[in-house]
Amino acid sequence: MFSFDIIYQSDSSNNEREQDLTGFYFNEEITRLQKQFDERFENIFQLKTKQNMDAKKIQFAKSTLSNLIGGVSYFT
Questions:
Q1: Extents of the domains making up the chain
Q2: Contact (CB, 8 A) for 5 and 22
């Protein structure tokens, strides 16, 4: 099995990254951003301290928030 990366970067973007988002760097950046999102989500909603909130319900809440934000930004 093999994989390859396709990078799209518009000419008008003001990209201040030191490196393109490919391969190992891409995976590291995604992991960092997921951790940042998880921490911020927990700080704001504090679902781990609520009764009857297991990992499956918390993941559902994160997905719901993500879809809501994505849907709103699509129509604005």
A1: 23-75
A2: yes
